[in-house]
Amino acid sequence: MKVHMTNIHGMTKNSVAQIAQNMTSQFGKQLGFNEIGIYNYPISVDSPTELSKRFDGMVASVSNNDIVIYQAPSWNTIEFDHAFVDHLKRYSKLKLIIFIHDVPPLMFAGNRYLLPTFIDFYQKADLLIVPSEQMYHFLRENGLAEKKYVVQHMWDHPLDANMLYDTTEIKRLNFAGDPTKFTFVQDWQHDTPLHLFASKKPTATDLNLIYEGWLNDAELCIKLSKNGGFGLVWNDGGYTQEYTSKYISYKLGTYLAAGLPVIIPRGISNEELISKNNLGFAVDSITEALEKLERLTQEEYLQYKNAVKEFAPLLQQGYFTKQALVQAVFEVLQA
Predict the structure, then answer these.
(1) Is 252 annotated as ligand-binding?
(2) Where in this chain does the record put each Glucosyltransferase 3-like C-terminal domain (predicted)?
(3) Which of 45, 52, 192, 253 is the right S-S partner for 155, CB 3.0 to 4.6 Å?
(4) pLDDT-derived band of residue 169, with 50, 70 and 90 as boundaries?
């Protein structure tokens, strides 16, 4: 028996979807898993026969009785995902684990109509790796049959802790994200400046932003640790808020791995984990966050900071991902 894992390639260098899959694949290789590469391309260029031949080449190392961990979505459309998994199912006694990274019908309101198609795809798995308990129960409420599942809980962020600074600056807010996707950034006129890490700067000139630009992974973590303060995980409410109550934010792991406590919106899927480990605090609004930040003492900040320092090695060394992968293989092979 061999274990294989899909991994996407060919997206932009700052694609979080690709970064997350590539990272997961690296941890899989450390566990002895084989990679099945999936290149990002317009699948309409392939006829059904050509697509089948493509799949044959991609799964040449797969045999009967193997395990395949499918990182989903592939971002080559849900039709591609269905077709690829159906191709894999031709192997006798193959076990399929679907590792759910994102659920596009929950990410974008315009894609909600696709939810049944995605749930039909998840039905094909022998076991699911889900971001949170909330996500599993949502899928069950929307038609998913009862299945074995493993909860991921948190995105890891591998890095060398020795390269980080240990700054004790309190009243500093850091946010990594595309400002065009987060309207609160475009309205940031608060007294406390927001350190923005993004490839594009908002065009408005009356915002209290300190633009840090786009940095590669190592540079970002070093700069975050040097800035100190808090990492901000936020959404704009509405449809986005519904999704954050079920998925897990990649940037949350980035902030914590870089040594920063976090400020999160109340109701996100791993709020309890953050609270239990004293890794930051949850609020209902940006205004509340800034008020709490203003009242925060040096002693209180150091308590958060030290708690993060204790917790961060789990993320820096990939233990959440490795645990989920090993547990998934362990569970799928049992009755």
Answers:
(1) yes
(2) 173-328
(3) 253
(4) confident
Q: Is 254 annotated as contributing to ligand binding?
A: yes
Which CATH fold would you assign to the domain 161-316? Rossmann fold (3.40.50)
pTM score, whole prediction: 0.94
Domain locations in the chain as residue ranges = 3-156+318-332, 161-316
> In the CATH hierarchy, which top-level class contains the domain 3-156+318-332?
alpha beta
Give per-residue pLDDT as tens, 170-204. 889 999 988 888 889 988 999 999 999 998 888 88
Query: Per-residue pLDDT tens for 94-105?
Result: 999 999 999 999
Q: Answer for the pair 210, 300: CB distance below 8 angstroms, yes or no.
A: no
pLDDT value at position 238? 64
171 annotated to bind ligand:
no
Instruction: Please tell me whether 322 is known to bind a ligand.
Output: no
Q: Give yes or no on whether 3-156+318-332 and 161-316 have one common fold.
A: yes
CA angle 59, 33, 151 (to 5 degrees): 105
Task: Fill in the DSSP letter of residue 231.
Answer: E
96: which residues sit within 8 A by CB, 6+ positions away? 67, 68, 70, 85, 88, 89, 124, 125, 126, 127
What SS3 class is residue 252?
helix
Residue 250 among known ligand-binding residues: yes
Beta pairing class for 148-151 and 173-176: unpaired
